[in-house]
Amino acid sequence: MRKKPELSLRTRALQYLARREYSRAELRGKLLPHAQIEADFEQAHPVDLDALLDDLTARGWLSDARAASQFVHAKRSRFGTQRITHELHQRGIGDELIDAVLPALQESELEAARDVWQRKFGALPKDAKEKARQMRFLQSRGFGFEVIFKVLQTNDTSPD
Fold first, then answer.
1. C-alpha distances in angstroms, 20 versus 49, 115, 120?
2. What pTM does this model have?
3. Looking at the domain that runs over 109-153, which CATH code has it been given?
4. Number of Cβ within a 10 Å radius of residue 28
5. Domain positions in the chain
């Protein structure tokens, strides 16, 4: 039985980037185990992962800004500003890029919270226990208390 040839680090990186946008930190984390394996086999020519990432960035194939924008676009309809900001930090997106997307996130947060609430509940709570449950749900989705209170004050879906 023939053994399947190992992919080069560059090929592996391009395959990841062909599927979706990655931040530099995410892609580095995905490639690091493979870089160590390659370095073990090619001791004469050590693999420089940071040089590869620099090259991909210089060619415009790797962009933290695009990764952040794509992530925000994908998650905005389901999550609040706090949750999105936290997940962007976990993906290795820098504070300056997060600060750049925050105004747009905060501007649309009330509308997003109302949409999420409407899909899940659709009716104002009848008692304190139900209100607490709805508040916990919206909080778990990353919406702030000020927005949650506005959503639960009225079922009017017009913006304030």
1. 20, 26, 29
2. 0.81
3. 1.10.10
4. 18
5. 1-62, 109-153
